[in-house]
Design brief:
Structural class: alpha+beta
Mean pLDDT: 78
CATH superfamily of the largest domain: Transferase(Phosphotransferase) domain 1
Number of domains: 3
CATH topology of the largest domain: Transferase(Phosphotransferase), domain 1
Oligomer: single chain
Largest sheet: 8 strands, antiparallel
Distance between the termini: 52 Å
Radius of gyration: 33 Å
Helix content: 10-25%
Shape: flat
Low-confidence stretches: 1-53, 320-357, 397-415
Amino acid sequence: MAERSMAAVDVADTSGEEPLTAKAGQATDDGAEAEKVSGGAEDTAHTGEVGAAAADSQPPELHSGHKLARRYRLEECVTRLDGFSSWRAVDEKLRRAVGVHILPSDHPRARPVLSAARSSALLGDPRFVQVLDAVEENDLVYVVHEWLPDATELTTVLASGPLEPHDAYQLVSQVSQAMAAAHREGLSHLRITPGSVLRTESGQYRIRGLAVMAALRGITCDHPQRTDTEAIGALLYASLTQRWPYENDAYGLTGLPKGVGLIAPDQVRAGVHRGLSELAMRALVNDGATASRQEQPCTTPEELAKAVAAMPRIRPPETAFSTPPPYQRTGYQQGSYRQPPAHNGQPGRATQVIPTPPPPLQSRTGKALKWSVSALLIAALGLGSWQLADTLLKLEGDQEAPGNSQTTVGKDKKQSGKPIKIVNAGEYYPDGKPQHPDQANDTHDGNPDTYWRTRTFKEGPELNPAFKQGVGLVYDLGSEHHISSASIGLHYAGKQTTVTLYAANSLSSSEPLSSLQKLGTARTSQTTAQVKLKKPAKSRYVLVWITAMPYAPTENYSEAGYKQGVTEVSFTG
């Protein structure tokens, strides 16, 4: 299974389905997922009617750039399934990325989806990905939700290996507490999978698709609390073993051997935390049986959360050098610079014996010698200080004297590298086809982690002039400045990026390129382009124009192809 991050895939889990086409550049879930997500033998969540009605109710023809409510601009379709589609979009009013689910208003699931979205939005629990809007408009029903660019699907996390005991403990603790709170408000999930649980950079877990996921799929259940509890148990099992606790492979994880039944996690993999292993078994459908004792099964998220709280707290692993080590002589001090340490009590072969320093001079002659040496050192220091002061005074006099050519050059060098402040930025697209105008000011905010990104092009590195002459950004320096060079930070390295500077007349995005004055060009395969002008030019507005860009793989919600991003731009005069 190909991995994918939260930033790349919408909340509509695509396990077992065909999620769109290869054109979007999105990875898909393993098609071998069992229809019964939790895997229990009873209280199974079952799908509602899909039928001909859902199949015939196709969404209208939507495309990138289409706007909903004159606010949400669709960027990229990430799922198209059962008559609904899910998109990455931009909220142009608040200038942020969002996700959108769209159904025709005559879709048999449209009403349940609207109801589920509005109920989920009322919960307002930050442990869930928040529903921001739920609207019926122009024969469409759409649900807008948060987009978390800093979060990663548990599917992707587990692809690199099982979790540490502390991380697995935090996972089951946070998810069970969140779902217990949801069930107290009458809300269930019914589709908790590794693809619906996200881990943020701060280590917090967020759950997406509360109530909405099941409504989109037409899933109903007679015992929702048990179904959600089993699903959490399956997540814990997978996080401890990197195996799916049922016979079928799913979510990129290998299932258990066929015919052997449910095996405790600590019997599947060595070193598994015993308490967490038993907790996973209590949450799964096996009547609570574990290898060491018979515990009551956890049948609700509330019971599971209480069982987690009753466990001894699992501390995070101590970081290396959390306490300073006792002082030791370095290898350099010992005469064995970068020599490997001793092993098994045997010294390293190159270890040298530290000679014992000779005793200090204690006689009258020795003391007199020490006083003489001290006096000489003091005299030498005084003479050196006097010479240094004399030299500095001469230099100061030279600088004040007019007509000194060397001094003038030195002053010019100090002034030539002065940075010029950027007060505003905008995207330049004379062909009327913008890339991401809302990201322009991210290129001079002092944060290299934020950037402006182009769309992905199929031809390159040089852009096809018949399709796109180039892409660029215009910068406002506040007033006219003499510009001598520019540094353009680039998000992607590779062959090649071509950047040209032009003196512009304004921040206008439609000013003809032919009317601008060309200042200089640079080509690079690195992540920085340095453009040095042969002769300083005076301008208030400067255009950074990109006409070639490298090939880069799929990243976040940007598919593979020829593309570039600008991180930080600076000008000097």
